[in-house]
Amino acid sequence: MGEAAAKKPSIEELLRQVRDGQPGAWEELFQRSVPALEQWASHQMGRSPPAGTRKSDLVQETALRAFQRFPSFDGETEESWFAWLKKIQRRRLMDISREAHSQKRSEDATESLEELDSHQLAAVQRSPSQFASQQEECRQLLGYVYGLPKEQRKVVFLYYLDDLSDAEIAQHMGKSQDAVSSLRQRAVRAIRDRRSGNPEKQSPGISQDAIIQNAADAALLLYMRKQQQGEQVDVEAFVADHPQCAEELRSLLSCIQALYMLKPTGSK
User: Fold this and answer.
1) Structural contact between residues 44 and 89, judged by C-beta atoms closer than 8 angstroms
2) Cβ proximity of 145 and 191 under 8 Å
3) Alpha carbon distance 100, 88 (integer Å)
4) Taking burial as the number of CB atoms within 10 A of a residue's CB, which of 116, 170, 230, 235 is the most buried?
5) Domain of residue 57, residue span
6) Closest Cα partner for 41 from 56, 19, 51?
7) pTM of the model
């Protein structure tokens, strides 16, 4: 047992591995951080957690936000890592408390469920198991993002989390806008393949699969350009316009929608 423990990488080493995109590094870093997160949660929440929030919910949400904001973390030591995590958890608990007070005010104002819009109603009706499932999906998706090559990973974070346009990312990275669009398109395909459990396919020669894949990639780039130009694109109508690769294209666009889920609610 002592030999196995000695082989465990340090927090500092895990931080380097996560930044290098090494598979499994984030999972190990998270598991090593759970005991501290649970201890802080117990201390901060006390005996009267806001809105019935469970300790496990707060731990999972802290880990998810750490996932999402890791590119902004420039610390390299165990001390700086845990200080950063604790700050994220404290802020999340403050957000939960504010949300609980806001909901209480709404209830006091006798707002009925019929007056809520569909998004709010879904949030009210969401069960703990649904919430946990969505959190797990986001965590898995972020794991796929961290498994991307460095430049693709950076483009995904800048576009889907930081709301930068391809043009702004191109300026930031010193690349052409077409190069950024291509990086984003390849990232979406790689993530889609990992979500579906299929490795990226490199079809030899001109096969039917290669023809469909190339057509879907071209359509995906067109979809991205339309978005960049501010067009409101009806997904189903757009897919219907590309019957040759409709199924493949629909799965890629579904992956894009999933990536938008990574952005924390209420973030700027």
Assistant:
1) yes
2) yes
3) 18
4) 170
5) 7-127
6) 56
7) 0.57
Helix axes 11-19, 25-45, angle to 10 degrees: 120
pLDDT digits 0-9 by tens, 107-153: 544 444 344 344 443 444 445 555 556 667 777 787 788 778 889 98
Count of domains observed in the chain: 2
61 and 159: one domain?
no
What residue type is 131 in one-letter code?
F
Q: How far apart are CA 230 and CA 112, in angstroms?
A: 35
Token reading at 176? 């052409």
Neighbour-count burial for 233-266, b at 16+ CB within 10 Å, e otherwise: eeeeebbeebeebbebbbebbebbebbeebebee
What is the amino acid identity at position 134?
A: Q
Looking at residue 233, its amino acid is V
Helix axes 208-228 and 177-195, enclosed angle (nearest 10): 120
Q: Which residue has the tokens 């109508």?
A: 237
- Indicate whether 86 and 165 sit together in one domain: no
Structure-token pair, residue 198: 């299929």
Q: What is the pLDDT of residues 181-226, one digit of tens each?
A: 999 999 999 999 988 876 555 544 567 788 898 899 999 999 998 8
Q: Rounded mean pLDDT of 69-87?
A: 91
Tokens 């997904």 belong to which residue?
235
Same domain, 154 and 227: yes
- Cα distance between residue 14 and residue 264, in whole Å: 24
Res 26: pLDDT? 78
